[in-house]
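As agreed, record minuted below.
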Amino acid sequence: MWLATPRPTSVSVRAGSTALVGRDVEVSAIVKILLRRPAAVLIEGEPGMGRSRLLEELAGRREFTSGRVLSGACQPMREPFPFGPLLEALRSVGDRPLGPLSPVAGVLRPLLPELAESLPPRPEPLADPCAERHRQFRAVRELLIACGPALVLIDDLQWADEDTRDLMRFLTAAMPAELAVVAAYRTGSPSGHGAGIPFRTRANVQTARVTLGPLDVEAVGKLAEELLDLPRVSAPFTAKLHESTAGIPFVVEETLRALRDAAGRLPIGEVLSDRLLESLEVPISLREAITERLDALPEPAVRLACAAAVLAVPSEPAVIGELACLDGDGLRSALLSTLDGGVLGELGGDRYGFRHPLARKAVYDTISGPERTLLHSRAIQVLAGQPVPPLTLLANHSRAAGRTEQWRHYAEAAADEAIARGDTSRAIDLLQSVLAEASLGEDDIARLATKLSQVALRGFRPDVIETLERILEDLTDLRPSVRGTIRLSLGMLLVRTIGRLGRGRVEVEKAITELVDEPELAARGINLLAQPIDGLTPLSWHEVWMNRAREVFDRIEDPELRLALLGDRISTQAHIGDGSAWTEFTELPDHGGVVDGVAERVQLARLWCNLADAQSWAGHLARAEKLVTEGIRRATDAGALYAAGLAQGTRVRLDWVRGDWSGLAETTEQLRDTYPDLGPIVMECSLVLGGLAAVRGEFAAAQRHLTAASVHAPEHGPIPVVLSAAGVLIRVLLATDDVDGACAAADNAVTAARRKGVWVWAAALVPASAEAYTRAGRWSEADAVVEEFARGIDGKDSPVSRVALLAGQAILLDARGKHPAAATVFDEAATGYEALPMPYQAICARERAALCRLNAGRLTAGRLTAGQPTAGDRKAIEELTAAAEAYERLGATRDAGRCRHQLREHGAWAPSQRGRRGYGQELSPRELEVARMLSDGRTNREIADGLFLSPRTVEQHVAKVLRKLGARSRTDVARRMTTYAPATADR
């Protein structure tokens, strides 16, 4: 069998074994069995499941280093050597002294010349071959007894010859007391050797049978990180890799090696894309394995496998057989052969196909060009006759068969079907593929582009923007209504794209003028321009468009468009603090009710998702939590991918402000990587990542993330995100004593807030700005921003703004030395934040209140320097201690360190009276903090600043961390920390 498609010259280099991933449970169970001798374990699995790698892992386990570990493997030879794998294993036993051996062991001298000096003289051969064979078996058993504690590992037992099988039966039937045997064999072997595995033991032997299955998605991700040498890979990439490899370890590794080789020849943006994974050539070793299985099949079974490869999806036997010109007994026989040979598999519902796409592609590549064309043409006939023709498959087969007109027809019909079902991605793919054809007429282009522009708004695909721009540029004679329809969608997509907000709004305004004869479409543009959340365009400009949207609403008859305008009006009013929006939402029948059409379901999902975002910024966090959960469900069901993505951004920000930080950084990074071109999601995720980095004291990383949140370019970002990011940035700069930088950031953000005119979005900005201005002595600016904020939120439905106003007022009081009054207001702010709940801000307010009380006590006592606290300070000290502990629980390590530092400064810290406990080789809590910061790439100075320790103390902690972890360098700490766990849970 030959490869039909020419292959470029390539070099495949394997760099040795990778770490064993995803088999912790199996390894732990096997080791536990093997430590209780005698023991026998049988490991079985389909090809590629990692049996050999598991044996390799067992051979290196430290639990077995005190005894001998003997390894051998059976070989797929036509005439295998008798006893081959066991003799291979026994050749190395002479490296240590053996126990006493009787003369019978001498019969092994010809078989094991390496042990000639350790074995007794060879006895005279017996005349009876059966008796001689029995003596050889006894000799092997005696040699294993003389080895003492021994672990024998035998691989690929399915290829064992009959002599080896008999010897294995003899050994396992009466195992030596200190012997453990592990044998691995392949199930589903095309050679048919799988039957009759020689493994029967007595009742006193510890036994186990382990079946290796595919890796789960998490394990595939870990394997990808190791082989690609990346700190992490995105969730979509991992899911796609798992889907493409079925989680089979061998297939995963070979695919990743091919990816790694291809990545060096591709632009960085392609390195981990789905497109690259789908276009990847089948790895050579995988191709060889599949070809070997095909070669072992009879000709009808090969035809059936090729037919299945052309069909490309799991199919019923009759369909595959019809394409392969097989039926009846011939079909059954061929199908059984492909199943026994491990080429096809039963995938449920009486459907058969390939375990993973790369196996299908390997078989497909063996089909010659003319034969492919013939099979695809025949597939069209077979599938078109089904009761419900599979339109997408018919389009694919038509294209592969070179039937262009037929392909266009089926592709457009399949896209229409996908739009009706809410399958947004498939619809976009189909329409894009047809529009890429150069031979289309203008009418066809206009019709297809109109469909594409409308469905594209449900998702977000940057390549659609390029397609629509090209069409508008190339086709100058389009009717105004068609041009306006396409331009409107283009503008809406541009608005969502990083750095293209202004141009998007310009395109939408142009589209509105072109849609004079299409008032309902024009209404969509008017509605978009009424949305004030993005950029620095003043609210007053948007309010003009809000009024126009109200004017056209009553003239709209399309139920989907009416729902779109209603939903956007409610969410917009909620965003700017109009409490009537929530009332209007709750008065909707069943909060929007249940609708039948996909378009209406998309708009209803948008309402829930957008309102969740608005309520979260207002501080109605409980409402937002319910809205976002239901909104994501509705958006996913309706195929509203863009709305679902935005709602996931709201979800991670909700988790951030509510203090649900466990695993949040990883989740947020994955979300950001999933939508790298979608501005609102990237910026919202960057805000969350910046906030998390700030509380860990990772100030450089925090500033990098906050820059990505558009903090320095407010004209390009969602203003609530920009102003919140500015609040975090100001606090980061103040923490590094960069007061001038903090004031500059405050100036920029306050100017943006004033220009926008929506002060309810400045809840995170105002207290931070007041802090920066008072630290710089800019009292008038500090007073002005708090007063202007108070006026701007007056009468608005924004609980978080009211609490933030208290925090800002408390900061002003504290800065002016009015500590008792400031403490009272800080307490009010803390209570307000706790009620929302926003625990981090609440703890910050409690900390400030405690410090105000301590400072007030010092002034009252006439003591301006730190010393032992008085009895009147005890409550404040308890509050400050509680704040430190609360920060610890939350994960705000730097803030916890600051509290402890303040306690020391106020003379309120004393060593434990119980004395310091010893941790031995285990990391102490402080060393664990240092190790985690080292893993993040922090310098000693950054660790010292983050934990409020001296550089000398940090140096000592770093040295202990390196020693206890056995790390060769600081960079090695990160790798070792991934598997580090304290010896006891209570430490």
Summary: The mean pLDDT is 87. Residues 932 and 977 are 8 Å apart (CA to CA). The longest strand covers residues 179-186. The radius of gyration is 35 Å.
